[in-house]
Predict the 3D structure of the following.
Amino acid sequence: MSSKERLYITIFKKISALIREGEFPVGSRLPTERELAERYGVSRPTIREAIIALAAKEEVSVKAGSGAYVLGNNLINDNFGREISAFELLEARVLLEGEAVALAARMIKQDELEELEKALRKIELEDVIDTSSSGADRQFHTLIAQATHNRVIAKQISFLWDIQENLSHISKARQAVCAEEDKHARIADHVAIYDAIAAGDAKSARNTMRSHFSELLEAMHAESEKEAVDAAKLKVSNMRKRFAITS
């Protein structure tokens, strides 16, 4: 394999990783060839080859005269995706990420731990600016998945995040919960998860992750109950108007 081939493959892998981590969300346009070339310090032909490789893997769609756009997982767009509930997704995340974090606590390397700490700081900053944003949160959980050094686990967790961010009914449910969420408690949860991983304590890491999701589940139940009550009140109000006896 030539050095040129190795270089474009390296760039392909870097861009692909950023797509999985959510830096380039589904539906967004990648930076231009010139911007990517400057970012990675390579030539535009090398970037072009990397984008062709991304298109071949169906990670992006190239539109002539417009650019390359990030594609979502096809499963998100079919009936399977439309039938998924926010509760089912959260249950899947509890089961998968609860065990992933325990494995990560045993397997994580020092450089990965440093990157995880940086992601934690981003969560703290992001919550001050916009509590509805999920970029730093996704990066934090993605880094944990990658620290398991199990590509199947990392891929499945990335897919669950794709579902959460790209199915409108689930995304709306998450935003509603985030709007009511105590941001200080949210940050404390992530700090506790990080501390358990840093200590190499698999049991504590599992428990703190599950506790974090348990709080999200309770918040989701509360929001669902509120929506049900509001809908019932509206229905009764409409019935009163319809059947009101006027003189």
About this structure: Strands lie at 60-63, 67-70. The first helix runs from residue 3 to 21. Residues 62 and 226 are 44 Å apart (CA to CA). The first strand starts at residue 60 and ends at 63.
